[in-house]
TrEMBL record:
Keyword vocabulary terms for this entry: Membrane, Transmembrane, Transmembrane helix
UniProt-listed InterPro entries: DedA_domain, VTT_dom
Protein name: VTT domain-containing protein
GO cellular component terms listed in the entry, alphabetical order: plasma membrane
Coiled coil spans: none
Naturally occurring in which organism (per UniProt): Candidatus Taylorbacteria bacterium RIFCSPLOWO2_12_FULL_43_20
VTT domain segment(s): 27-143
Membrane-spanning intervals of the chain: 12-33, 39-60, 122-145, 157-177
Lineage: superkingdom: Bacteria
């Protein structure tokens, strides 16, 4: 299995980017940082996978009648949706680019772009700019973190433990609270 993964690493990266988006890019850049992948192909394949995935969600939005989708999704919040809709229509480029940086908004913005019948050429251009900016920021952060970790030397493992344990506890507490709220 490891051999298959090593032989087809960029194919698996592409499939991962289609399905998991930028969540896959972070470890891929780390693998490029430590020399297991080449940065340029990793970046290019990630841009392509993200772009195809986003375009899929855009076309899903194009197929949905705007009023039906919005009514079913946000029936009780009509005023809020009207306000957001007006803001979106006058700031499409900002929404497309900034949605990359706010977890949970990316797919919704792609669908809404389709629902609002934004020109695909304009959408594709602005979305591609957003993807490239976002992935460049993530890559730069990974490389900076890697350089900083190397500068820390032997204390890296201690710092990893200090960061990992509280993060794991926060995730477990979050899951526990969500389950408690669902029961009520």
């Amino acid at each position: 299995m490891i051999e298959l993964l090593e032989q087809n690493k960029y194919l698996f990266l592409f499939i991962g980017m289609l399905i998991g988006g930028e969540t896959i890019f972070l470890p891929a850049v780390y693998l490029a940082y430590i020399g297991k992948l080449d940065l340029i192909p990793t970046f290019g394949i990630s841009v392509l996978g993200s772009f195809i995935s986003d375009s899929f969600w855009y076309f899903v939005g194009r197929m949905v009648p705007p009023n039906d989708w919005l009514k079913k999704r946000y029936f009780r919040r009509k005023e809020l949706i009207d306000k957001i809709s007006r803001m979106f229509e006058s700031n499409v480029a900002y929404f497309l680019i900034l949605s990359k940086f706010f977890y949970g908004t990316r797919t919704a913005v792609q669908i809404i772009s389709g629902v609002k019948k934004i020109s695909y050429q304009y959408y594709a251009y602005m979305n591609l700019i957003g993807i490239i900016i976002y992935l460049m920021v993530i890559a730069a952060l990974v490389y900076l973190a890697g350089e900083g970790a190397e500068a820390l030397g032997s204390n890296v493992h201690k710092i990893q433990i200090i960061i990992t344990i509280p993060a794991a506890l926060l995730i477990l507490i979050h899951i526990w609270i969500k389950r408690l709220l669902k029961k009520k």
